[in-house]
Amino acid sequence: xxxxxxxxxxxxxxxxxxxxxxxxxxxxxxxxxxxxxxxxxxxxxxxxxxxxxxxxxxxxxxxxxxxxxxxxxxxxxxxxxxxxxxxxxxxxxxxxxxxxxxxxxxxxxxxxxxxxxxxxxxxxxxxxxxxxxxxxxxxxxxxxxxxxx
Length: 149
Ligand SMILES: CC(C)(COP(=O)(O)OP(=O)(O)OC[C@H]1O[C@@H](n2cnc3c(N)ncnc32)[C@H](O)[C@@H]1OP(=O)(O)O)[C@@H](O)C(=O)NCCC(=O)NCCS
Fold this sequence. Notes:
Blueprint: E1 2-3, H1 9-19, H2 26-34, E2 38-44, E3 47-57, E4 60-68, H3 77-91, E5 96-101, H4 106-114, E6 118-129, E7 132-142
Parallel strand pairs: 4-5
Antiparallel strand pairs: 1-2, 2-3, 3-4, 5-7, 6-7
Coenzyme A is lined by residues 19-20, 65-68, 73-79, 101, 105-108, 110-111, 114.
């Protein structure tokens, strides 16, 4: 993977809008870039296949989003990208990665479990939209570091 730049936003948004049930807007991606979040993309043959964003806070990072282009799903790319993001966090002396996910997103929950994430909590009614609300599963993965590199 490599760092996402503003020039990637069109391609990232195209994937986002085609694979996420609740897609981020261009402004949200731009805000993440501007805020210095760790925004990475996977590129092959000149095209973007996926992206992931980590938000650091002291010695923990939150996985804000991860997406793989529909034509590239179920080939192991999501797992590889997630592993690389965890490695990036480990290299930067982070101790823990956590995330929130809709329990109905069985593909993502299963990916996270298989990558070593465990369920550590439930936020009731966390996601709200016109169709009602849904709980968020909170999952975490320890990186084994001591916070000092
Ligand atoms: C979640 C996502 C990133 C997985 O990417 P992927 O490249 O298809 O995943 P992989 O091929 O690496 O699969 C890894 C594991 O995830 C799980 N998984 C992936 N897709 C799945 C599906 N459709 N149904 C059930 N489990 C699935 C499986 O456990 C899989 O392991 P296996 O193939 O050995 O069974 C992809 O489905 C996606 O982009 N979804 C839309 C965006 C999204 O929901 N992101 C997460 C919330 S922000």
